[in-house]
Amino acid sequence: MEIFKTKSALEAFLKPLKASKKKIALVPTMGALHNGHISLIELAKTYADIIVCSIFVNPTQFTDPKDLEKYPRPIEHDLAMLNEAGCSGVFMPNIAEMYPQGADENWHIDLGKAEFLLEGEFRKGHYQGVTQIVKKLFDAVEPDVAMFGQKDFQQVLMIKNMLAYFHLPIKIITCPIIREDDGLAMSSRNIHLSPVDRENSLVLSKSLQYVTDHFNEFSLDELEEKAKRFYQGIEGVELDYFTIVNGDTLEKAKSKNENSLVALVAAKVGATRLIDNMIIK
Ligand code: PAF
Q1: What is the mean pLDDT of the chain?
Q2: Which sites bind (R)-pantoate (predicted)?
Q3: Is any ligand 1 atom within 6 A of the Cβ of residue 40?
Q4: Is the CB of 152 under 6 A from ligand 1?
Q5: How far, in Å, is the centroid of ligand 1 from the Cα of 29?
Q6: Count of domains in the chain?
Q7: 25, 144, 162, 177: which has the fewest C-beta neighbours closer than 10 Å?
């Protein structure tokens, strides 16, 4: 597995591979890898010959400087996991490589109304930062296909909107959420959960599962209401939202007949903010 710290070194590695018509997959990450990321690599292998994983903790998508500061960076462990998973190359630039003019570089594109809903309401500007770095990574790798996890459901939609904005010919693949045995969605942030938080964190997957299992029994409003009750009286858990939305627009679903329905949740568990979702249909 090759490691690249600069765009030029990465480009030199990819050039002959592209010339010999090899398909390239990009798996963008911020490191602190877990089996959810490895599942992206595994799925990438079914689409491409060469898998490039990027590890870059992108400052422009953090709305809370403390969150950025405490973001885990277990780089040796990450590299060992990627090597074992059969990743071809790792791109791990520093901030100056990605933001030569500084991380306050100007960026604003139209991502549609959905940018301001859900996470966009709680983390203002987050998706501008995400699309800014993903565009830079796409420019550096020019992949045929790029892999993203369904756990960040809104992120995938925003990245697709960014692709449409720039007319980029890259196929986006969304990989299903990988869960711990007890249901908790895998996330780099789970490392911050205390034993009590870890127990409490199960409320997210349980409430989503309830809505999925009982979808035919209640109205949308009743389902949301019942899901929200799961959070009442759990000390140290603060619900930001639990909502059932149209999966294409992220607008609150008006009817069960809409062709794509997703239940999404965000909650603070102790000091850690978690998100999760389940696609109903
Ligand atoms: O999902 C993530 O880890 C990040 O938002 C991404 C896509 C790597 C961009 O920094």
Answers
A1: 98
A2: 61, 155
A3: no
A4: yes
A5: 5
A6: 2
A7: 144
